[in-house]
């Protein structure tokens, strides 16, 4: 598979370059949304990129929304659990889709309804639920059926995801942070769901924020944040940011041939993230 590496340019009005600690290297992966094929491809690209560079303590961060929309959320979680078991450097952030799935399985029909509106059907089918059973079920039925097909170890794994990760001058979150609130006082709901207030803010957050959640056709570089959700579930473009010292670069899988040039535009459902 072809590798695309894009060297980032600093905006003219950027503050002094953010850095990770000396001797460390960080790779952070944007929203996967059930695209096991793209995750496997991007991990291979990351391993090759890491091996080609000087030895460093390497961190791997997944920014959340591993599930929903794409065809193989169950496979993505299996692979993520394998990574957790074999790589001490890997960490996982909770996205709003993990929150929806867990809340639905806990027994809230409203959460199941929202989940099904934003790709939960594909998640449940990936765990072996039949299409006919899904289509005939009420939301209460789906809760019981989800409990039957989603393994308890997957639920426990997702429940242990972190809300934010700080490495050097970088803060990694799923959705963003609320402006004007100290980083150590941010609430999980904002870290997983916030959008406009965060995206529109032009001031410093105290750290360079790396996030997913909001789809853009390509990497979005701003003086105070970097967005790397390139709509992999539909576009095929799964993106990782790589950081070392004050350097940053990007690795990205090539778009699906049928997806067009850009990620899908935001619509009513997309606002859920």
Describe the structure in your own words.
- The chain has 273 residues and is α/β, with parallel strands linked by helices.
- The protein folds into 2 domains: 1-94 and 163-255, Purple Acid Phosphatase, chain A, domain 2, CATH 3.60.21.10; 96-160, no CATH class.
- 36% of the residues lie in helices and 17% in strands.
- The chain contains 11 helices and 11 strands.
- The strands form 2 sheets. It has a 6-stranded mixed β-sheet with strand order 1-11-10-2-3-4, covered by helices on one side. Strands 5-6-7-9-8 form a 5-stranded mixed β-sheet, with no helix packed on it.
- A hairpin with a 2-residue loop joins strand 5 (165-167) and strand 6.
- Helix 3 (96-106) packs across helix 4 (109-117).
- The radius of gyration is 18 Å and the shape is globular.
Show the helix and strand layout.
Blueprint: E1 4-7, E2 24-29, H1 36-51, E3 57-62, H2 73-86, E4 90-92, H3 96-106, H4 109-117, H5 120-126, H6 131-136, H7 139-149, H8 152-159, E5 165-167, E6 170-172, H9 188-193, H10 196-200, E7 208-211, E8 220-221, E9 225-227, H11 232-235, E10 239-244, E11 247-252
Parallel strand pairs: 2-3, 3-4, 6-7, 7-9
Antiparallel strand pairs: 1-11, 2-10, 5-6, 8-9, 10-11
Helix pairs in contact: 3-4, 4-7
Number of domains: 2
Order of helices and strands: EEHEHEHHHHHHEEHHEEEHEE
Structural class label: alpha/beta
Sheet with most strands: strand arrangement: 1-11-10-2-3-4
- CATH superfamily assignment of the largest domain? Metallo-dependent phosphatases
Strand content: 15-25%
Low-confidence stretches: 1-14, 260-271
What global shape is seen?
A: globular
Major sheet characteristics:
6 strands, mixed
Q: Tell me, what is the CATH class of the largest domain?
A: Alpha Beta
Mean pLDDT: 91
Tally of separate helices: 11
How far do the termini sit from each other?
Answer: 28 Å
